[in-house]
Write a structure and sequence with these properties.
This protein is α+β, with helices and mostly antiparallel strands. It is about 30% helix and about 25% strand. The chain contains 14 helices and 21 strands. Strands 1, 2, 3, 4, 5, 6, 7, 10 and 16 form a nine-stranded mixed sheet that branches. Strands 9-11-12-13-14-8-15 form a seven-stranded mixed sheet. The longest helix is centred in the middle third of the chain and has 21 residues. The protein starts with a helix and ends in a 12-residue tail after the last helix.
Length: about 450
């Protein structure tokens, strides 16, 4: 069934006695009970905030549910969290499927597949050009997703290094107050301008991040201000006020951003020392549920400047999970980000390029036309033979290049059926530069 038509056919029978429909406000309590039972208590507050309408972009109708009409109980559900991303400052809409769950007694009936059809249709109706998801390895590939970017590039600093830290006393950390919110927004937005991909926040979304989530919502983040000895603000820290992984009790740091002119090399010892003291205080107050804190987990972007300031001997890398990304209409996405793609050519060997680039995806393709460094046209192209075109990409692997995860040579090594002419390989690497950042998704 085409995803564009599934919404108009709801409620949809999924085999007697199961019915798929969009949720409503009356389902909020049942959704909380279902996700708490299928996952655990860490999902209770998060589900409640999403289903209650408290969230700035999610209503109960952004959940799909499969209901057993005999018991009137929810047996499967998925949620869509809408948000805005930026590509080189160009905004585009993104949908994040989340809370994907099915009661064990009802699995292997295609219930998640049908709900993803509905979620994708709802996302398309909102004008969203991309969907992103994380979770179980591989599973979302069958719904058109491909690995796109790493979630973050975590490094750990173990307690043995933190207890030995000494610094000149040039900075300290303190809890952020409402008076600091405008400063945090400004520093974040300035940092986002330097990234290829970033997430934008509306005023309502910022208010939600600062104070809108429930106390027990494990997607809630708390904030610290980094200031110098005179009390002037240098930057901010965002951290998770609970233990992320019970087997690895560490204080997880999600963001560290300093304002322009404040260098990480001077402040890193006192900064880490302050975060370590903060973590131990949270344990003592019972906020971090562990007997002993083992260190700090810096869940920052893969090439964060703090990693370059801290001695390598102090850092222990953790393998990062990927985001799975789906782009249902690559032509539409490329047209949206065309101005930034043209900027990427400036200063490269492809500056001023004229010609055509035909990309063969085997079941379809895209043709780009260039005139003196400007992209004059982007349109669908259907190759007649598998060998046609200037470059070939299997499945959805082209997304890895668009997202800046791999360069063309790396992709050609990883995929035996990925190929391109020398000119196409150079041009593609110029159009889509490497990206080592991290997108702060709306949750």
């Amino acid at each position: 069934m085409p995803s564009s038509s599934i919404l108009s056919q709801m409620p949809l029978c999924c085999g007697d006695p199961l019915v798929l429909r969009l949720a409503g406000p009356q389902d909020a309590e049942a959704l909380v009970e279902f996700n708490t039972r299928l996952f655990d208590a860490r999902f209770t507050g998060w589900t409640a905030d999403l289903a209650s309408g408290r969230h700035p972009t999610v209503q109960a109708g952004d959940f799909t549910v499969v209901v057993d009409t005999r018991s009137q109980k929810i047996v499967s559900s998925v949620c869509l969290i809408s948000q805005t991303w930026l590509y080189g400052g160009i905004p585009f809409q993104v949908g994040r499927p989340e809370l994907v769950a099915t009661d064990p007694d009802y699995r292997r009936r295609g219930l998640v597949r049908k709900q993803f059809q509905a979620i994708h249709a709802r996302s398309a109706a909102k004008g969203e050009l991309m969907q992103v998801i994380t979770g179980v390895d591989w599973i979302y590939r069958q719904f058109g997703y491909e690995m796109g970017v790493k979630m973050w590039g975590s490094r750990c600093v173990d307690s043995m290094h933190l207890t030995r830290l000494k610094g000149p006393g040039g900075c300290r950390v303190r809890p952020a107050t409402s008076d600091d919110h405008a400063f945090i927004r400004n520093v974040y937005e300035q940092a986002s301008c330097r990234e290829l991909f970033a997430a934008a926040r509306s005023s309502e979304e910022w208010d939600y991040e600062f104070s809108g989530r429930s106390k027990d919502n494990t997607r809630r983040r708390d904030w610290l201000i980094v200031e110098d000895a005179a009390g002037s603000r240098l930057g901010y820290v965002q951290y998770l006020p609970c233990i992320a992984l019970s087997h690895m009790p560490m204080l997880r740091i999600y963001q560290v951003e300093l304002k322009a002119g404040a260098g990480y090399l001077n402040v890193w010892p006192e900064l880490l020392k302050g975060l370590w003291e903060k973590g131990k205080a949270l344990v003592a107050d019972g906020i971090l549920a562990c007997e002993e804190l083992l260190g700090l987990e810096l869940a920052l972007e893969r090439d964060h400047p703090l990693y370059h300031a801290i001695p390598k001997s102090h850092l222990r890398e953790i393998k990062a999970s990927p985001w799975y990304i789906r782009v249902p209409d690559m032509v539409a996405l490329l047209r949206r980000i065309r101005p930034e793609m043209e900027k990427h050519l400036i200063g490269t060997v492809a500056e001023g390029y004229s010609g055509e680039l035909k990309l063969n995806f085997f079941r379809g393709g895209i043709q780009l036309s260039f005139e003196r460094g400007r992209i004059s046209n982007i349109e669908s192209w259907n190759p007649n033979e598998v060998w046609e075109g200037d470059a070939r990409f299997p499945d959805a692997s082209f997304m890895q290049l668009v997202c800046g995860w791999h360069r063309f040579d790396r992709m050609a090594e990883s995929y035996a059926d990925c190929w391109g002419t020398h000119e196409a390989a150079v041009l593609l690497d110029c159009l889509f530069p490497s990206y080592h950042g991290k997108v702060w998704l709306l949750a």
